[in-house]
Structure formats: C-alpha cells, structure tokens
Amino acid sequence: MFWYTPAIVIIDELELHLHPQWQEEVISRLERTFKNTKFILTTHTPTIVSSIINENLYLITDNQIIAGKHLDFGTYGAEYASIYTLLYNINSRSDNEIKEKLERYLYLVNENQYTSEEAIMLRKELEKNFKGNEPSLEEAKLIIENKEWEKSLYEEGQ
Q1: Disulfide: which of 94, 113, 118, 130 matches 134 by Cβ 3.0-4.6 Å?
Q2: Domain locations along the chain
Q3: Tens digit of each residue's pLDDT (9 = 90 or more) over 99-139
Q4: CA dist., res. 7 & res. 36, Å (int)
Q5: Residues of the chain below pLDDT 50
Q6: Per-residue confidence (pLDDT) for residue 148, from 0 to 100
Q7: pTM here?
Q8: Strand 7-11 to strand 37-41: parallel, antiparallel, or no bridges (unpaired)?
Q9: What is the predicted pLDDT for the residue at 3?
C-alpha cells in the first residue's frame, strides 16, 4: 500500500482552501494516514502552528532559520492571538481605536482608578463592543474584585 511507503512530501501554505477546523486537524490526520512520510510544510496560520510541537517547528525570517526548540514559548495548543503576537509580531487587534481604549481601561484598572468616570465609561463602551467576549475585560473584573477584597481586609484591620 502506498501510504506505508517511505516518502517526503512538501506542501507550501498548507492551510490554503481549508476550513479553520480542518486546519486544526490536518497535520494529525496526515501523520496518522501516512505513517512513514516526512512532511515539510509552510504556513502563516496560527491554527496550523498551534497544532505543531516546538521540536517539529522552524521559524524562517528574512535572514535566519530558528529551530522551534529554541523559542522562548510553546506553540502546541497555544492561543492563536499569542501566536500572532509572539511568532509573527502582529497585534491580533486590527482596530487601533478599540485597542487603545482597551489598553487605557486596563491601565486605569491597574492604577486603582477603576471607579473613575473615564474608566466606567470605557468599560461600558468596551462591553457593548465585545458583547461579553473579551478575556481582558474578564481579567480586569477579577483584578478589581481582588483589589476591593484587599481594600476591605485593610479597612477591617484598621
């Protein structure tokens, strides 16, 4: 059978024309189906990169090739936004205005200014925009709750 024959297969831009769910599964399916085949694949898609362990990954830049085992972060199972940021040096948010508002809100939270009029207004606008689907806002909420808890402990001790 041909799928047991040793081979090397080169595929450029593996993700092209594949549904995102298939992109997540394509490498494992190829490896299971063609056990004696070595694949050399190229991609720019986080869905593919996150399905590869670092030892099987090489990052090719304009002037160097970096083995994945030398990267400071793991790719296998990583969030796509992290891959965009860490591997491709791209901020995963395309709208600069929203990004700036989110960064400003997070700054205000970290500076204990989360009760300010500006912070409250930004929070409402961001919640409306993201419709409850933004991990940074949830993280900020937990930070605020923790700060309030610490504040109550301090006040009880006074």
Answers
A1: 130
A2: 2-86, 96-157
A3: 889 999 999 999 999 999 999 999 999 999 888 788 889 99
A4: 7
A5: none
A6: 92
A7: 0.60
A8: parallel
A9: 63
Residue ranges in 18-116 assigned as alpha helix (H): 20-33, 46-49, 80-86, 96-110
For residue 91, the number of C-alpha atoms closer than 13 Å in the C-beta half-sphere is 8
- What pLDDT score does 1 carry? 62
Q: In residues, how long is the chain? A: 158
Whether 111 contacts 119, CB under 8 Å:
no
Nearest to 106 by CA among 82, 137, 148, 129: 137
Alpha helices of the chain — where are they, by DSSP H? Answer: 20-33, 46-49, 80-86, 96-110, 117-130, 135-157
Bridging pattern class, strands 65-67 and 58-60: antiparallel
Helix, strand, coil percent values for the chain (each to nearest 5): 55, 10, 35
Structure token pair of residue 156:
């009880």
